[in-house]
Amino acid sequence: PYGFQRKNMAPNVMKIERGEKQVLAAFISKLPEAIIICDSNGSILVHDSQSEAYLLPDNKKSAVPVSMTGQSITLFIDKNLIEHALDEINEQLKQSALNMVSTFILQKNTLILQTQVVPVLSRAGLFSGFVVILDDITQQSRAEKRVESLLNTLSKNARSPMASIRAAIEAMREFPQMDENRQHQFKDIIY
């Protein structure tokens, strides 16, 4: 149907009853990450308001709530990223991995989101859907870039004086008989 079905991923579509949806929605609204629960076809069954804040374009965030429920996850996250994540999970299913998860970084609007896709398996162990977990790492990423920039600047600024010191030492070693005035100039560079 959707293109998400993979080998070993039988079309066992997850269904959530209305009462269960309300309980799930209340539970995931308390989590620090944004959560989206999808069936095996990629249709969104349940999501929290934080996922809307992360994924909806700024012009869609209005006073009237927009629900992502019932829509395809690929309207909000690139289809290739989702399919790659599900392929990776399929490989993990084949290998009977214990911690099946696929992680990727998603840039959406002005945010950098660490995205995890985790399968939902039926009692029989068949793929019946997946959970998308979004964590905003924008501030962390910006801080890491600032530290990297600072280290690069320090490194560049340290190289120039180091080169001068090294050249002065090499000159003094190569020409030990140089006059005292010249030696004093090189010592000033070193110190």
Helicity level: 40-55%
Tell me the strand order in the biggest sheet: 2-1-5-4-3
Query: For the CA atoms, what is the radius of gyration?
Result: 28 Å
- Class by SSE composition: alpha+beta
Number of helices: 5
* CA-based shape: elongated
The largest pleated sheet is described as: 5 strands, antiparallel
What's the pLDDT, averaged over the residues?
80
**E-strand count:** 5
Distance between the termini: 74 Å
Report the sheet-strand fraction.
Answer: 15-25%
Q: pLDDT below 50 for ≥5 consecutive residues: which ranges?
A: 5-10
The run of helices and strands is: HEEHHEEEHH
Oligomer: single chain
What's the quick description here?
The chain is built from five helices and five strands; from the N terminus they run αββααβββαα. The protein is of the alpha+beta class.
Can you put this structure into words, describing what you see?
The chain is α+β, with helices and mostly antiparallel strands. It has five helices and five strands; from the N terminus they run αββααβββαα. Strands 2-1-5-4-3 form a five-stranded antiparallel β-sheet, sandwiched between helices. Helix 4 (about 140-175) runs antiparallel to helix 5. The longest helix has about 35 residues, at about 140-175. It is elongated and about 95 Å long. The relative contact order is 0.13.
List keywords for this structure.
elongated, 191 residues, alpha+beta, five-stranded antiparallel beta sheet, single chain
Topology:
Blueprint: H1 18-28, E1 34-39, E2 44-47, H2 49-55, H3 79-94, E3 102-108, E4 111-121, E5 127-136, H4 138-174, H5 180-190
Antiparallel strand pairs: 1-2, 1-5, 3-4, 4-5
Helix pairs in contact: 4-5
